[in-house]
Amino acid sequence: MLQRGGPAVGRGLGAIQSASSAGPGRSGSAGRTAGTPPRCAMAVSVPGYSPSFKRPPEIVRLRRKRSRNHSAAVPSALPEPTPRRAALAAGLPLRSFPSSGGRGGAATVARRNPFARLDNRPRVANEAREQPSRGPQGAPGLLLDSNGENNLPWEEVSHERTVTELSQSQHVPFSESDTTSSEGAELPADWSIKTRLLFTSSQPFSWADHLKAQEEAQGLIQHCRATEVTLPQSVEDPKLSTELRCAFQQTLVYWLHPAFSWLPLFPRIGADKKMAGKPSPWSNDETLQQTLLSDWSVSFTSLYNLLKTKLCPFFYVCTYQFTVLFRAAGLAGSDVVTALVSPTTRGLREAMKNEGVEFSLPLLEESGHKKKGREANLESEEEPAASDEDEEESFSWLEEIGVQDQIKKPDMISVKLLREKTEVQMDHRPESVVLVKGLNTFTLLNFLINCKSLVATSGAQAGLPPTLLSPVAFRGASMQMLKARSINVKTQDLSGYRDKFSLEITGPVMPHALQSVIMLLRSSQRGSFSAGMYAHEPTAAFNVCLPLEKEPHRKDAPKDLANCGLHPKTLQQLSQIPLLGKSSLRNVEMNDYIFNWRS
Q1: Whole-structure pTM value
Q2: Eight-class DSSP state of 431
């Protein structure tokens, strides 16, 4: 049995044991000659010995012994300075180590990523500002959202995320790369659709919760009758103010078509994942699709007629590819009806041209005017782009001198491709926003009704007509409510813990609703609150300044829009010329009734 192991096995065990028995000051050869046991005795003394080395417990034990003995025999050297000792020697502040979340209890601080900094230097104060602000759970702060875009439905908005954002909203610094910021007694007009609003204040928002049945009914009646509500500058006890609570209910109402309670109908761009798996009986039924599209056309025409007669201030058409904003004459500094389409593609613009819809690209024209102005200052002029006929005439002189066969003309297809390069590059971007004015808006209406590509033919939105959003009632519309809830949390301050209150509103928040809510909070929160706003990004381009004839800003609301259903102050704000360009309001703070906003 002992011979089955072979000489190689005995030699390996003897070499390992001789190496382990050799002291730190003795050589390997001395160890082998002094105390090496016979190979057969070694094999017998090892419990669980296996010739194939499947279970070598003695080898593992000997290796551990050898490593301990070797480390103990090495002369003790000066300990290498650790980052903590180096920081103490340099007088730098030390970073507190996270508490262990093992047997002692749950961890209070998330464990640091060991690959974040390879040199393990202690982070000083200046370096700490480079990292984004994070809450106690490691979640980004309020200003670091998507796409900034937060289009989660109401059921998916978690309580923990709101509490984290609330605790960080007052302490997240603004970066220098923010587009614009300003201060004043009024906010600029914002024509983008907000998907979520988060207001924070030192005063409670409990007045916005649990409306009584009478207050809810009164708010709906006030909305339908366009009742003008004027509150004092400061409400003494907001929770007991019936007028405030009814006005808040009135502000949350909006009108929608089509309406399906199981489908999220806004936003429509990129909503396939949210609609996936939801029942859609019209997707494979052409008759039902034609019925839905016919009802949608009637509602769309009804809205346009209300807009033309100045009984509806504005409305939105939300397709699965782009969004259209129709505005009545007198709004945004224009004396005629206007329509903005964003984002667009070259194919859509070509289709509009073929149907006789005249339009302009205001953002490109604005940048072109700026470029020409700079060139004029440098005493240089930009040559206009030559047409196809001009290019053909430009080569006619070659025939006159008889060398037309010796010079190769450029390919006309290549020339056209070079011209269209700019148009293709701006597709799906804010610069592709299209402006339609005057009677051309009616042509645009007919184009949208007859456009076959307006409705998706495949995917989760197949056969579903575009969404119509309006602040007033129209034919076939369904009354909907924005969702609101208030949250009270404790936030840590230098003096200890203090109460912090928040109000969250989700849904398609149109410009009039944003202005109305801010007017209510001005009175209920005593002129002190802050707000984080999340816009549906494709609609931010609706804030572009229209290329109007140099008109002064309107100081008074247009009188012919008095019956459009908006509050006079809201109407006055929306009648101003837009100032935000292709951005939208992101953060608003009010202190002592003075606004400080950033976009």
Answers
A1: 0.66
A2: G
